[in-house]
Specification:
Radius of gyration: 15 Å
Helix content: over 70%
Number of helices: 4
Order of helices and strands: HHHH
Distance between the termini: 44 Å
């Protein structure tokens, strides 16, 4: 059960990182580049935690939790004007470069 939680957390962090990369490529806002860089570091930590979880669930899930906290992005520029939830989830922005 713990392994599934760790794997789900890894895919969530990876999805949000790819979304930040897509928004950065479209808008060139520096905050999204920094968010993508944080996401890459956080996904690495979460992946290490997911690998350790079958051996020691306490340490593995602790690493997953630390990676999730490192994935915190901070304030961002407004890039969505009238996008619906699906477009926001996929990183489709109203602003272009």
């Amino acid at each position: 059960m713990y392994v599934y939680i760790a794997i789900a957390a890894y895919f969530v962090v990876l999805f949000l990182t790819l979304r930040d990369i897509r928004i950065y490529r479209r808008t060139s806002f520096e905050s999204y580049r920094k968010g993508a860089m944080k996401g890459i570091a956080a996904s690495t930590i979460v992946l290490i935690g997911a690998v350790i979880t079958p051996l020691n669930p306490n340490i593995g899930l602790l690493l997953v939790l630390i990676g999730m906290f490192l994935n915190k992005k901070g304030t961002r520029e407004k890039v969505f004007n009238d996008a619906n939830a699906t477009e926001r989830m996929l990183g489709k922005t109203d602003l272009q470069q």
